[in-house]
Amino acid sequence: MRELWVFVERIEGACNSERPMGLGTGFLVRNGRLHLPKGGPICLFALQSILPMLPAKERVIDDDPQADWMGRVHHAQCPDPKGRTIWRMEQRALGTTKLDAPNVPEPKTGDLRITVERIDGRCLEGTKIGDWALIRGSSLYFAQSFCLYALQAVLPMLPAMARPLDADDWMVTENAVICPDPLGNVIMRIEKV
């Protein structure tokens, strides 16, 4: 197992994120958990397009790039064709990268807060009750590292929940999401601040 440093290597357009991603902006993946330097931010939409590759990239050994296509792939791009923000996935020895303590902004009206409400099993990724993340516009912040599998379960709902919802929309009352691991059964609540 390796750790991954995923960072913006180049921008071939103009990043349209609320807090535009700059060269070198990045995050760490270590043992299935995402760590954002200083707590973030990171673009929610770019992250969503990169996440599916991360579990495999943590495990691929680049010694034989012909053995698996994942060994040859080191880049992913955000889904915005005008932004063309190109991210590089760089493998490192486990425990190599040091990160500063998170410095997450205080939630304000209109933000979304994802909170681990309960754990009805045994989470193997170290998730704890009370772990939380903040969504402000298209920017994601973590108060601590966050399980990438739990995050993948929550991400599809966030753009819709950030917008005004009709009173009869199911998302008004159904704002709990469970992680995909049936052993962990981590329940997260998404709430508008």
Tell me what the structure shows.
By secondary structure, the chain is an alpha+beta fold. The protein has two domains: 3-92, no CATH class; 112-192, no CATH class. The protein has five helices and twelve strands. It has helices at 44-50, 54-59, 69-72, 148-154, 158-161, and strands spanning 3-11, 26-30, 33-35, 42-43, 75-77, 85-92, 112-119, 132-136, 139-142, 146-147, 176-178, 186-192. The strands form two sheets. A six-stranded antiparallel beta sheet has the order 5-6-1-2-3-10. Strands 4-9-8-7-12-11 form a six-stranded antiparallel beta sheet. A hairpin with a 2-residue loop joins strand 8 (132-136) and strand 9 (139-142). The radius of gyration is 17 Å and the shape is globular. The termini are far apart.
How many helices? The count is 5
Number of domains: 2
Order of strands across the main sheet: 5-6-1-2-3-10
Q: N-to-C SSE series?
A: EEEEHHHEEEEEEHHEE
What general form does the structure show? globular
| Residues in β-strands, percent | 25-35%
Largest sheet: 6 strands, antiparallel
Average of per-residue pLDDT values: 88
Q: Provide the helix percentage.
A: 10-25%
Q: Please compute the radius of gyration using only Cα atoms.
A: 17 Å
- In angstroms, what separates the terminal alpha carbons? 38 Å
Which residues sit in consecutive blocks of at least 5 with pLDDT less than 50?
Answer: none
Helix vs. strand class: alpha+beta
Let me know the number of strands. 12
